[in-house]
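Technical note accompanying the year-one report. For the benefit of new consortium partners, we illustrate the data format agreed upon in the data management plan: each record pairs a sequence with a C-alpha cell string. No post-processing was applied to the example shown here.
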Amino acid sequence: MVKRARLIYNPTSGREEGKRRLADILQRLDAGGIETTTRATEGEGDAITSAGEAIDNGYDIIIAAGGDGTLNEVINGMAAKAHRPPLGIIPLGTTNDFARALGIPRQWEEACDLIVRQQTMPIDVGQANDKYFINIAGGGSLTELTYEVPSKLKTLMGQLAYYVKGLEKVARLAPTELHFNIEGHGQFSGEFMLFLITNSNSVGGFEKLAPDAQINDGLLDILMMKKCNLAEFLRIATLALRGEHLNDPHIIHLQSKRIEVTSPDYVQLNLDGELGGTLPAVFQVLPSHLHIFADPTGTSSYR
C-alpha cells in the first residue's frame, strides 16, 4: 500500500545539500512506495506550521530533512497534536546531534532506505513551558552560541563556524544565579556557568556529554556546571570530550522527569540549538511521545 509523506526541508542546511539532493531523495522514496510531496522552509517557524498542516491533512508520514533546527521545528509542529504519524529524519544539517544519537545514517540514501523499511521506535520528547525539544535544552551564556551563529556563516563554514564563535564566546564567559527544583532530588541554588537538560547522549558533537541518557527511558538528564574560572572551564570541556567530566566537583549530574529553573537575571533558553524563550521554565519529559523511523537493532550507524 502506497504511503503519503510530507517532506519538510531546509534549503540552506548543510551547505545547501538538501536543495541539491531533493530530486534524488524523492525518487528513492517513490521507488520504495512512499509518495512524497515537499515543503521548503522560507523562514523561522515555517517547519512548525508545515508539520501541523501535514498532520491535519492526513499524511501518513512526516519527514524532516535538514539539521537539528529544522528537526526541532518539525517536532514542535507535531508534539501538541493528538494524532502524531511516524517521523523520518534525513540528516543534512551542520550538526545532526539527534540523528547521531539514534544511529540514523548520515548518507541520504541510507536514511531514505530506513524510512522505506517502515521500522519505528518510540522516543521521549522534552517540553519546556509551551515549547518542545527532542535533544537538548539549556541556559547560561555559552548555550547562546548556537543561535548566534548566522545561517549564512553556517552554510559557508559548516561546523567550523561554531568553533570560531565559541572561542569568541568563551573569552567572556560569566556565571549566572540559578535556582533549581528537581523532582526526586530537591532544590539547588547558586552561581552556575550553564545548565543542560538532555534527552540523548549526543550534544553539540560531544557524544559522551550525558553518557547515561537514553532516548526512551522516560527521564531527562540534567547537567549543572558550577561557577569556575576560564582555565577550569576549558579543563572540564576537555574531560567532557572523553566522557570523564561527571565526577568533577564543578558538575552536578542528575536524572528526573520534571525540573523547574528560575533566575533573578535575564536568561535565554536554548532548545535544540534554537532560541527557546527565557527563564523561568518548567522542563518535563513526555514518554514515548513520538515514533521515529530507526533501526531497532541498532545496526545502522551515523557516519
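Partners are asked to follow this layout when depositing records. The longest helix spans residues 13-31.
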